[in-house]
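Replying to the earlier thread about multi-chain prediction with a worked example.

Input:
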Amino acid sequence: MAYVVPRRDARTQSEGVVEGYAQTAQRWPAQPLARRAPGPSELSGPRVSSRLKTTAADLAGRGAKRALGQLIDVRARIVDEDGAPVAGAMVEVWHCNAAGKYIHPNDSNDAPEDPNFYGAARVLADADGRVELRTIKPGAYPVPDTDGWWRPPHIHFSVWGRVWLSRLVTQMFFPGEPLNDRDYILNAVRDPEARSRCIARFMPQAGKALVYDYDLVVRGRTAAAELP
Amino acid sequence: MKRLVPTAEMTLGPFFPREFAAGANDLAAGAQGEPIEITGRVVQADGRGLDNLVLEIWQADAEGRFDNPAFCGWGRAATDADGVYFFKTIKPGATQGRAPHINFLILYSGLMRQLQTVMYLDDSSDPVLENLKERSGRLVATRLVATREGANRYRFDIRLRGEGETPFFDD
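Result:
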């Protein structure tokens, strides 16, 4: 069955140039984006797992001791616009440590490093489109050269759907964080419902880690589902 | 059937792990076809080259097929401190009414969503290219002199914004 990628409602996606985030005005195109009719080139699917190696799904337990911070489990599920799970989807995550410091040479934030924290993972979803990551809750951090903008705790996600146009790179936020309402990145999505879907759900339960559920919807659906 | 709304894209941010972009820019190893190299510089509105910007490519095999199990037409590179990237691949074949081309996807800090563009190896007739009219020339790579190993080298520079801006697509 043919697979299609319908156009999106712009309100459910981030704006290109965002007030308060100065770099967007240097980088988002000034010309309107061109349109094209997707064909086999855009609607075929790269098998990235033959190029990229997976890692352990635990970012907090790879050192001699457990990483500092609140232990969390993130249960993410990758589905397409039909709600069909993307079996075997490749998922990359990365985030800062509990003090708000990334393992990256470009991070100039004056916050301590944690030798027991490993800030990135690459895993494959199971047959039901699910991945489970164990890590610590990332901290907030100030954005340099801004007027008091702090990034709320967030986890970067990079996932692949069934076809080239299904590629999704986004950020997962945590519920109840006061910084969420002030974040220029989260609030660049105008539709409040689309915004709230970027915030994980806290799932109270017994165990040694706080559990969060998070759904990712990648672009695309089977053509038959387009029929009325 | 109820249609789910695709998750909002967000910026890659400045701290994409270096190891995630390492070693994924060679598509030519073990592949059938004419090896080529692609290099270029990615700049922002003020002309500055962008460091640690991520480019992903997707292309057909030498015969124009996207489903060849023996060839993975996907690759990834990150720019260096001057904004320069590099891929090794094979020349894609023409496919179903399209001239030989390589799809590019760009992810970066300050880009709220992915940017999609296409690199053409020459100015053969192509419907996507022709729709761009006078801006189409920006998507045709410049063929440079062959390297010592004999691979043809192409230059494909990308300007995100400003004078001579690269055309990008919103599908």
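The longest strand of chain A covers residues 71-79.

Feel free to reuse this layout for your own posts.
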